[in-house]
Amino acid sequence: MENVLRPLIVIGGSVLLTLVIGWATDLLLRKADGRHHETPLWGLLRRGRIPYQLVICAALLRGSYDEARLLREYRVGVGQALTLVLIGATAWLVIRIAAAVVETTYTRYARASRDPARVRRVRTQVTLITRVVAAVVGVVAVAAMLLTFPPMRAAGASLLASAGILGIVAGVAAQSTLSNMFAGLQIAFGDMVRIGDTVVVDGEWGTVEEITLTFLTVRTWDERRITMPVSYFTSKPFENWSRGGAQMTGIVYWHLDHSAPMEAMREKLRDILRDCPAWDGRACDLTVTDSTPNTMQVRALVTAKDADDIWTVRVTVRERMIQWLSEQHPHALPRVNTADASLPPGTNGNRPSPSPDGAPRRAHEPPRTGR
After folding, report:
1. At what angle do helices 75-112 and 49-68 cross, to 10 degrees?
2. What does DSSP say about strands 204-211 and 215-220: parallel, antiparallel, or unpaired?
3. Per residue in 77-97, pLDDT tens?
4. Is 367 a residue whose pLDDT tops 50?
5. Contact 55, 90 (CB under 8 A)
6. Does the pTM of the predicted model rise above 0.90?
């Protein structure tokens, strides 16, 4: 009877105590979250209740397993397995706690800051810091797991002795990965590109959606995703439309006839912009920038608060101006001239008459007469 009750009491008591402690801790976190709405820390800490309970249960079972007197011939293997679970659950819990603290810090900063560019910068740094912490904790946890095996401890001296050669080999083999990781840290703290920035990369216009230690994802305007190594942004030029402020100036071109009414077009441009909610009201202008024998190039300058709105303003101005010209001033639209060319001043306006043999007469050539 003792052989049945002892393991049941030890294992069942450990599991029951784990559930009670986990329930009590979760209850305290819920109450703290309800009282302090200004910070999301307590709510974020609740995400770690599963690894928290695993740590408690593994620690209790590891400390009381000898008292259970169960499977004594496998005592070393069971103890080793519980130790590995304890290390892994502890690493999981540390990552969750670190993520909760970092996310809380970012949330407080985002609420207090009025600069969207700085908020995006901090968001990029927070994301990469969280990933770095998770990677470091994971590596330490794996190393701790390996060191729990006696053969690994015995081989420690030889591993340290060959660390220099292995480091060189690993550095050469993982050169691309390491360069991307350092490039990711450079992007995070060098403020080159941030999550939410509008960029143009290889002729593709889009928004930075995700930044990791090794790659960066750009979401294009047609909802495609372009994944690129972060080292690209530290080695090649690219356009960042959000750096230094999101406000933008857009350009709209028309090729019109020389008789286009410029003053009327300027008034119509102002009317179109007043009816366009995307225009921020900073500036507008309309000028002739170039001329050809058949048309002239008219340029309109408009402004908006960001890249999305400047696109809306440009297409609206282009469409409504062309519609207004076709309805009110159709002569202003470009057309192919099929009329006779005007002669220089001083001529009689008549074409030279052909000679009797059908060939055109040259200038100052006397008329030919037949006999």
Report:
1. 160
2. antiparallel
3. 777 788 888 888 889 889 888
4. no
5. yes
6. no
Output the CA torsion sign for 132, 134, 140, 143.
negative
Query: Does residue 329 have a pLDDT over 80?
Result: yes
Determine whether 72 is exposed, middle or buried from the number of CB atoms within 10 Å of its CB (0-12, 13-18, 19+). exposed
Gap between the Cα atoms of 321 and 284, Å rounded: 14
| CB burial of residue 186 (10 Å; 0-12, 13-18, 19+) | middle
Spatial contact of 279 and 315, defined as CB atoms under 8 Å apart = no
CA 290 to the chain's CA centroid: 38
Closest CA to 82 of 100, 70, 95, 99: 70
Whether 287 shows a pLDDT value over 90: the answer reads yes
Q: CA nearest 95: which of 128, 142, 62, 48?
A: 48
Predicted confidence (pLDDT) per residue in 128-180, tens digit: 778 878 888 888 888 788 777 776 665 544 444 444 544 544 444 444 555 65
Q: How far, in Å, CA of 226 to CA of 229, rounded?
A: 10
With a CB cutoff of 8 Å and minimum separation 6, the contacts of 264 are 328, 329
- The secondary element (H helix, E strand) that includes residue 205 is strand 204-211
Which pair of tokens denotes residue 11? 């294992």
Looking up tokens 């910068």, which residue turns up? 121
How many other CB atoms are there within 10 angstroms of residue 325's CB atom? Answer: 21
Closest by CA position to 178, among listed 283, 100, 169: 169
Q: Which of 2, 8, 3, 42 is nearest to 25 (CA)?
A: 42
- CA 316, 328, 261 angle in degrees (round to 5)? 85
208: which strand partners?
A: 218
Q: Is the Cβ–Cβ distance between 195 and 120 less than 8 Å?
A: yes
188, 124 Cβ separation under 8 angstroms = yes
